[in-house]
Amino acid sequence: MKKSKLIFLPFSVLILNMVWEFSHYKLYIDLTNIPSIPHLIIASFTDLFLVFFIFLIISIFRRNIKWIENTKRLDYIVVIIIGILIASIIEIYSLSKGRWAYTTLMPTILGIGISPLMQLFTTAIISIVLLALIDHLFIIYHKTPISYTTH
Hints:
- With 151 residues, the protein is mostly helical.
- It has one domain.
- Helix content is 68%, strand content 7%.
- It has four helices and four strands, in the order H-E-H-H-E-E-E-H.
- The strands form two sheets. Strands 1-2 form a two-stranded antiparallel sheet. It has a two-stranded antiparallel sheet with strand order 3-4.
- The chain is elongated.
- The chain starts with a helix and ends in a 9-residue tail after the last helix.
């Protein structure tokens, strides 16, 4: 994978998760006593780690780190399933330990907020699509595919 992609992918995952965390914050009652801005930044970096954990699982399953440049339908399904599983575990644990609660604005399924259930897989998939879009635009502009060899 080209170095520029190795920089773009985590950057896009982080930015998307920051936007998600800051825009959905009003759906939560934060009980951690951590100031909101540092808390949301820490949460965004944690989300980055979790998304890359999902990508690692797929890389191990596919036996190739370059799967992200040639995604299959199954890859997206795995991202969705693992994302929901991770989010469910975090939400159940954090709600039971009193780290946060939901406001009445948060829609829930079985007591778990829909926003956190969707966050990891949504930001992961959008980042993958953005990476493919950049490849496509590069080909259109330069009339040649991007070389995927690491320099």
